[in-house]
Amino acid sequence: xxxxxxxxxxxxxxxxxxxxxxxxxxxxxxxxxxxxxxxxxxxxxxxxxxxxxxxxxxxxxxxxxxxxxxxxxxxxxxxxxxxxxxxxxxxxxxxxxxxxxxxxxxxxxxxxxxxxxxxxxxxxxxxxxxxxxxxxxxxxxxxxxx
Length: 146
Description:
By secondary structure, this protein is α/β, with parallel strands linked by helices. The protein is 37% helix and 27% strand.
């Protein structure tokens, strides 16, 4: 089962259309933010989570708006199965470095391993393709629950 959490109607509509035209049936689309999903479904566990090219909110005063932060990562890791994995990718190095550092801090609290790499772990998304077209440097992070 694939769970897509997307608060924006355009993202949901595009995903639903893609799934419909490609006859993908094992997907559940949740039309709200992750925090609402977390409150509604308390006993869930992920095998894998993919967070690719979230809005980097590059201005320092906007960093509080970023999707991925320390608390978000901690919550996501706690809902991963043993041997669960979180993949994070961004072409904004500041955002990537921030998440890498927060992951290393979490390593002290939780049993995880953190590895960064350049290789694409899955299919190329729309924003990944856009970053490639712009010749941006793309970084990926893999966080494994041990």
